[in-house]
Amino acid sequence: MREFDYYRAGSVRDAAKKLAAAGNPMLLAGGMTLLPALKMRLNEPSALIDLAGIDELKGVRLGRKAARVGATTTHAEVSGNVELRAAIPALSQAAESIGDPQVRNRGTLGGSLANNDPAADYPAVALGLGATVITNKRKIAADEFFKGMFETALRSGELVTEVLFPLPQRAGYAKFPNPATRYALAGVCVAQFKSGARVAVTGAGTSVHRLKDFEEALNEDFSPGALEGLSVSAASMNDDMHASAEYRAHLVGVMARRAVRMALG
Amino acid sequence: MSGNRGIGAAAPRSEDRRFITGRGRYVDDINLRSQRYAWFVRSPHPHAEVRGVDAEQALRMPGVAAVLTGADLQADGIGPLPVAWGITSMDGSPAVEPEFPALATDRVRYVGNPVAVVIADTRAAARDAAEKVNVHYQELDSVSNAAAAMEEGAPQLHDAAEGNLCFNWEWLPSAMAPEARANTDRAFREAAHVVSLELVNNRLVPNAMEPRASLADFNPGTGQLTLYATSQNPHVNRLLLCTATLKMPEHKVRVVAPDVGGGFGSKIYHYAEELVVCWASRRLGVPVKWTAERSESFLGDAQGRDHLTRVELALDADARFTGLRVDTIANLGGWLSAFGPAIPTVFYAPLLAGVYKTPNIYVTVKGVFTNTTPTDAYRGAGRPEACYAIERIVDEAAAQLRMDPAEIRRRNFIPPDEFPYQSPVGQLYDSGDFEGCLNLAMELNGYAGFDQRRRQSEARGKLRGRGMSFYIEACGAAPSQAAGQLGARAGLYEVATVRVHPTGAVQVMTGAHSHGQSHETTFAQIVADRLGVDFGNVEVVHGDTGEVPFGMGTYGSRSLAVGGSALVKAIDKVIEKGRKIAAHLLEAAADDIEFSEGQFRVAGTGREVAFGDVALAAYVPHNYPLQELEPGLEETSFFDPENFTFPSGCYICEVEVDPGTGVVELCDFVAADDFGNLINPMVVEGQVHGGLAQGIGQALMEHCRYTPEGQLLTGSYMDYCMPRADDLPSFKVATRSTPTPFNPLGVKGCGEAGAIGAPPAVINALLDALRPLGVTHIDMPATPNAVWQAIQAAQAVE
Ligand SMILES: Cc1cc2nc3c(=O)[nH]c(=O)nc-3n(C[C@H](O)[C@H](O)[C@H](O)COP(=O)(O)OP(=O)(O)OC[C@H]3O[C@@H](n4cnc5c(N)ncnc54)[C@H](O)[C@@H]3O)c2cc1C
């Protein structure tokens, strides 16, 4: 870790103003990703702007058509919210599959989405549910938000304030954990809306992405059987010491069917 | 008076209060005035010439006190890191022991090899400056796999080690080897069945919870050096500092190993970092501290295992074992760690008889240098590798002969009436009841109900398998003469002092060191039991060369068998002296004095005097036989064992495999161990649990991996998979004890058993599950990816 300044922001405006300052200031949410990176000197911010004191960024508000989750809501708060679990079980399932209790008590939804780790869980759920990421400047559809490995549509000076999850008819999230990190080796979110099915995959490829042919099959018939015989190409999969590309491709199919089963309850 | 805290009681651990309330005192908790911090510059290359170290820029950084290099080390006459065990190749030549300087002088041979050290006011300043040390490397070709390193044209690490061969060793020793070899070859020629396997014993990172740390404090005023170190054996560190590296007399060096959070072997050695902080403190005249970051532990702590083995078993028509041939390539790393050459040889081959009456055994081991972190003892140290080879090949034989794995073992066991049993590979087994342990394990597992459980699993789409293993290991190192004949450069006795204070309070100074083993509890139980004093009135002091007269430390499950025995001998001396004092006080003959439950008594009378009163008389000798006896009540014993001890046990594991994902779930794990007598069954159970967790980790999760060139791929927990509590089943553990006749407590040692017996039990169970799919072999760790690939490969063949 190198030396940096520390600000505890009082409001979104305050945080945005500090973020626009000279140097290389960074937002600090749960710190579960950022602090290890600082210790390993992978990031060298001039200042950290702590979002923890901003009340307007916290909490879950459930509407008739959508759930709004504040950016600094922790994974534990998401998975522990009973109404939210009833409305979007897939979101709760994803939140409770993240890390361990310590991580879930610190890590936040906004931090996870902004970081867009290619093996993180929330990006799959946000993309699978067709969420809208709300920032201090604009609204960004999930389909536009995730740009690639650790890359998002966020511009400098922009911070995530809230995420809007439309309520699906049903949805499920199935995750095969990496045995070492317990991030997703392959995680699949499936959701069914009146407008059609959505399927998003994390962990398996370079970034979270949708599976259009899986979606079409589920539009025909929202059942695990409908996905039987569908596969993803190993060529598009990550290949590393934890899992070969073929294995990941295979797991995507297994997890997709499992997610459908979970969605169907 | 010992109440429920005597020998055999599951007494709660005295250590726990301070650990649980955060009152432990670890090396990094100690801070001294004017303390500076060390940060090491380490090689990023697996193999390179060091052409020069330019420290100019670093020295100009704020707070930097010094930048020291290998050249400074040489100029100050600091000796190389010592090798503590000499091995002789089959041609009679000694193993190649290249000089291992604490800071590289001419070449680096693994990623993480220390090259220079920065000493600064803060750790951050030292680290900042270390980034500015400019090392001029000339990269060289490199190799990480031991078999590849032996190939023609492979990069050569050390000039003296042609073909990277450190030694080419055989067992038995040279005089007996030709006969052993000829007999074994004949057994194979005449065999009714021969089975063979090629096995990989995966390299492991020890991962003690507390990273290594050293704080050296040289006082220029007195010339006294105090080293606080995360050590399993502070006297050994002092011995090596004094004789091999710093070369100071013992009375000027004190080594303190305070609370230490786990070792598993990795904290035995005299490492570069501890030597360098001592030397730096002596040069600068200020205390110098180094605390490893976790990533340094991955690079710098001696790693474990890493064997490639071909094992062959010959059987007669009745499935009796007639011969065993083992050929192993052991990866030693870039340099020799202290016991590096001993672990894959003398701690391995003499255990290859296992629990079976195999008459003919011949073993060869090649030790090979590679561009990897040096390997050394890790929980089990040679014995897990031996057990894995035997128990895999025995199961393979059972599978090929379509025999029940229990039956083939039963048929080949050494029977209980043949102890002490002389094995063909040079060990005199003390005691055991293998059949009894097997029966106990089978009962706990519900052996007969397996087929039904297998059908239930099948109905859920899962493949169920059951596997067993039977280990025997040598603990209680060691009879010093035997160890010396095998190449040990130190004695391996243990030391205890029992100091009885005037009030009758007892302090025990032991040369063993507890870094998780609970000595403060178990050793106090022995004292409470033998002296009849209250458990709370006994304190166990360990880990300080300033307080404990001498000792060889804790590893190889030796503390109780050797250190506990030394303690008993010292207690016996205290009782003997007490008897003479009591005789005087009771006006009787010493021969007539009996001692039990804290009372000295004139035999056959009601006349007695309490232990505490005898202690008081020893220190206030108003009424005391001063003509015959010195005042005071304090005795020391050195105990050098007659033999090793041989714990053994049967483990049974049941797994369920999801063929769709390759996930292996442990459904049942039974451990039936023979540890001889137990001092504290709860502590023993804890040791078994920990060992099993590590053994299961090796079987299913852990693997230290390098690129072929030697870049570490698993340098953090993001890539190195450690077992977590929810990966493990609820263990069923039980013991069936046959006390060893070779020490006064009849104890054998329990620290490593789980890590030794678990891996083959797990893999045998997994193969039992997968054989119906055509999978006949899998290497550790059997990750979901590996299991799924094995299933795919087998099905592609069919
Ligand atoms: C041991 C461990 C295990 C984990 N396991 C998992 C797992 O299984 N699955 C998983 O998905 N994740 C896992 N994580 C990551 C965890 O979910 C983190 O919480 C998450 O990735 C980052 O959230 P955070 O609140 O901690 O963000 P921080 O670490 O504070 O920040 C991360 C990044 O996001 C930026 N940022 C934070 N908040 C905002 C905002 N509101 N607007 C814009 N930018 C912002 C920061 O500047 C920084 O660049 C694990 C982490 C750890 C330490």
**Residue runs with pLDDT of under 50 for 5 or more positions of chain B:** none
Order of helices and strands of chain A: EHEHEEEHHHHHHEEHEEEEEEEHHH
Based on secondary structure, the structural category of chain A is alpha+beta
Largest interface: A-B, 17 and 22 residues
The N- and C-terminal alpha carbons of chain B lie at a distance of 70 Å
Provide the CATH superfamily of the domain at 170-264 in chain A: CO dehydrogenase flavoprotein, C-terminal domain
Bin the helical content of chain A.
25-40%
> Ligands in the structure?
flavin-adenine dinucleotide
Average of pLDDT of chain A? 96
* Count of discrete alpha- or pi-helical segments spanning 4 or more residues of chain B: 20
Determine the fraction of residues in helical runs of chain B and give it as a percent range.
25-40%
What oligomeric state best describes the polypeptide chains here?
heterodimer
The number of helical segments of chain A is: 12
Shape of chain B: globular
What would you say the CATH architecture of the domain at 430-475 and 646-798 in chain B is? 2-Layer Sandwich
CATH level-four homologous superfamily name of the domain at 430-475 and 646-798 in chain B? Aldehyde oxidase/xanthine dehydrogenase, molybdopterin binding domain
Lateral arrangement of strands in the main beta sheet of chain B: 3-5-1-12-9-10-11
